[in-house]
Write a structure and sequence with these properties.
The protein is built from eight helices and seven strands; from the N terminus they run H-H-E-H-E-H-H-E-E-H-E-H-H-E-E. Helices cover about 40% and strands about 25% of the residues. A seven-stranded mixed sheet has the order 3-2-1-4-5-7-6, sandwiched between helices. Strand 1, helix 3 and strand 2 form a beta-alpha-beta unit. By secondary structure, the protein is of the alpha/beta class. Helix 2 runs parallel beside helix 3 and helix 6 packs across helix 8.
């Protein structure tokens, strides 16, 4: 059942992921981390942009790690990509390690959003960028159904202003928040 859900998420998040990734520059040799990498489709897209870079994924679900490794089998086998089981709250990476860190549709479940944003900042290189992309956040057009899901699952559901404040308080600079009102999507960027 978990594998079926992951497969469905890979497909349903594709357009959102491409929109979010279009908002950032990724250099050919960047070292990139995807937090909450799920089934690994975002990593596959990132790998096409960082052709000679190094890609990492981390997910709390062992099933997701397994699926992401299978989705990116050739990159994993070549050593270009490493996908690990772990939590955003205590990542097994050195400080100042990543050029770009992405998170697509996973911030909702981070255990302690303020603390976890600081942990992400720790592993970013100076001038490195964090990108958070989501289709559920607190805004005027958010449906009642989505609000019920948020409450039922205990998800984070932040406003654009809350995102700005949290990233700034965690130590990020040049914080930008962009909304896609047509689809109800949000893209949040911050620089170390």
């Amino acid at each position: 059942m978990g594998r079926q859900t992951i497969k469905r998420m890979n497909k349903s998040h594709a357009e959102l992921t491409e929109w979010g990734f279009s908002k950032i520059d990724i250099r050919d040799t960047d070292t990139v981390l995807d937090v909450g990498c799920g089934g690994g489709k975002a990593l596959k897209l990132l790998s096409k942009r960082a052709l000679h870079g190094k890609l990492y994924g981390i997910d709390y679900s062992e099933t997701s790690v397994d699926c992401a490794c299978k989705e990116n089998k050739s990159d994993v086998q070549s050593g270009k990509m490493m996908i690990v089981h772990g939590s955003v709250s205590d990542m097994p990476f050195e400080s100042d390690f990543f050029d770009v860190i992405t998170s697509v549709e996973s911030y909702y479940f981070w255990p302690d959003l303020s603390k976890d944003l600081k942990e992400v900042l720790r592993v970013l290189k100076p001038d490195g960028m964090l990108l958070i992309v989501a289709e559920m956040y607190d805004h005027a057009q958010q449906s009642e159904k989505d609000k019920q899901i948020v409450q039922m699952l205990g998800m984070h559901n932040n406003t654009p202003e809350e995102f700005r404040d949290m990233l700034r308080q965690a130590g990020y600079q040049n914080v930008q928040v962009e909304e896609n009102n047509e689809h109800g999507w949000i893209c949040v960027r911050g620089i170390k």
